[in-house]
Amino acid sequence: MNIVICGAGEVGLHAAEVMEADGNNVTIIDKNAARIRKIEDSLDVRTLRGNCASAEILTEAGCKSADLLVAATSSDEINLLTAAVGKAVGATQTVVRVHHSTYFTQRGLDYKKHLGIDQLICPEFSTAQAIAQTIRNPGAHAIENFARGLVEMHEIPVSEKASAAGLALADLGLPRGSRLAAIGREGEMFIPDGASVIQPGDRVVLVGNASVFHQARKLFHDDRVRKRKVAIMGGPPMAVWLCRALQTSDFSIRLFELNHERAEELAQKLDWITVITADPSDLGTFDEENLANLNAFVSLLDDDEHNILGSAWAKSKGVKQSIAVVQRADYLHLLASVGIDRAFSPRRVAVKELERFIAGNSMQRIASLAQGIIDVYRLRVGPKANCLGKSLRQITLTPKGGIAAVQHGEKVEVPSADYVLKQDDTLLVIGPPGMESRLKKMFGTK
Given the DSSP bridges, would you call strands 426-431 and 402-408 parallel, antiparallel or unpaired? Predict the structure, then answer.
C-alpha cells in the first residue's frame, strides 16, 4: 500500500515504523526539521517537510495515488482539514486521529460524513476504555473490546465462593445481553450448552454488553469489596473518558489535578467524583487521603517518567493495583520489574486501530485461549456469504465454535439465537485453530 502519514509525533512515528515493517510504501510529512532528520536516520521511508493541510504539499507527497492518508498531528482541526484536502487531492481512504470528544462523538455534526473521512480514532478514548476494563475486572484476562468498548470479552477465573459455582448454565440467570462463550477446565476448553455445570477453578470466557458485563461477571468471581476506591493522577482528556467509563455506584473516584483552573473545570464536568488540587505521590497527601487502601491507582500525566515513578511508588505503599500510561511504547517491557501491574501506550493503541482499519474485510485472529485450544477471530460478512439470511441457530460452526458478538452499522449486540446475519455484519467468532478456511467460506471473507 502507498501510505501518507501527516505528523511525525509519537503516533505518526510509531505508525510509520509498523507500516514500513509490513512492506508498505510510507511517506511522512512534518513541519519540524528535527523530527524529519530523526526519521531519516532510523526508517526507510520518504520524508517531506511542510504543511500537511496544503494541497500542494499533499500532492508532492503522492496523495493522488495514496491508498491511505493518516492525519496524526497534535491538532484536531489540522487533522480534519488535512483529511478533507487529502480526499479531494485523491487519497482513497483517510484516517484521522482526534483528541477531543467534540469531534470523536461528533456532537452537532457528523464530521466523518461531512468531510469524507473514513475513520476517526481517539487513542485517549480507547486507552481509557482498556484501563476501565482492567479496573472493573481485576484478575480477568481482557481478550477484546468490541465497537468502542460497547461489548467486552474477558477470560475470568471462577472463584470458590462464586454464586455460579455448581450451577448449570441454564440456571445461572445471566443478564440479558451477556453470554458464556466458552469454559476452560483442566487444559481443555469447550463451548457450553444449557446443561454445562460451572465448577470452581474453571476459566470462563464471558461476553457481554458493557452496561451489564460487570453484573454478569459477579456471578463467576466473588468480589468482596462492595465499593472500589480509585485514584487518578492527572486530569487530561483521557481522565474524563476514564471517569465516565467508571461512572457506576461500584466506584469511588478521586482525581488529583495540580492546576487550579483545570481542577475546577473537571469538578463541574464530573460532578460524581471528588477532584483534589494536590499531588497524590506526595507522602503527606498520600497519607492524609489514606491512599494505601486504594483498589487502583492510575497515572495519566503527560510525563512518562512521573507516571512510572508515581505508579511504582503507590504500589510500594500498598495500593492493590497500579496502572501507568506511557507514550513511549519502548518503556512498556520495563514496568513490571518496578512493580507496576499494567501499562498502556496510547500510540500503540492508535496503531492497533490503524491496523484493524487497514485489514478491513480481512479475517483477523485477535486472541488465543487456553494455550491455543481456542482462538478468537474478527471478521466481516461478505456479499457472497453462505450464511446470509440465516439465523444463528441455523449455523453450525464446529462443536467448539460460536458467534460471540455482532456489529451492524452503529448497532452492537451480543446476539440471540434468532439473530439473522446480514451483509457487512462484523463478527467476533470463537473457534478452534485451523478453522480459518471454513470461516472464510461460510462468511465470504478474505
Answer: antiparallel
